[in-house]
């Protein structure tokens, strides 16, 4: 768990899930990618002690997140 508060997280997710069908991904795939990408960007903000989302410095991790979270159906 990362203990931090950052600004800009909503903008980071704004197009990922709605754009998934157009990209040929399932909703579960879109959610997994979104969670994995968000964590990578937040990890970069934490590493640099930033209160802003570090999209530019985390761009490699946005393309290929180092840690993958899988969406699972709960019902």
- Distance from N terminus to C terminus (CA atoms, Å) equals 25 Å
- Strand percentage lies at under 5%
Number of strands: 0
Query: What is the number of independent domains?
Result: 1
Helix share of residues? Answer: 40-55%
Radius of gyration: 13 Å
Q: Averaging pLDDT over every residue, what do you get?
A: 78
Structural class: mainly alpha
* H and E string: HHH
Describe this structure in words.
The protein has 75 residues and is mainly α. The chain has one domain (19-75). The chain is built from three helices and no strands. The longest helix has 21 residues, at 27-47. The chain starts with 8 loop residues before the first helix and ends in a 12-residue tail after the last helix. The model has no long low-confidence stretch (mean pLDDT 78).
Provide a brief overview of the structure.
By secondary structure, the chain is mainly α. It has one domain.
Index terms:
75 residues, mainly alpha, 3 helices, globular
Chart the SSEs and their pairings.
Elements lengths: L8 H5 L13 H21 L11 H5 L12
């Amino acid at each position: 768990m990362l203990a931090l508060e950052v600004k800009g997280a909503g903008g980071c997710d704004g197009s990922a899930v709605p754009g998934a069908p157009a990209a040929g991904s399932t909703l579960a795939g879109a959610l997994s990618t979104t969670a994995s990408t968000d964590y990578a960007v937040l990890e970069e903000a934490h590493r640099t002690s930033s209160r802003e989302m570090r999209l530019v410095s985390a761009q490699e991790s946005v393309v290929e997140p180092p840690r993958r979270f899988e969406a699972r159906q709960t019902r």
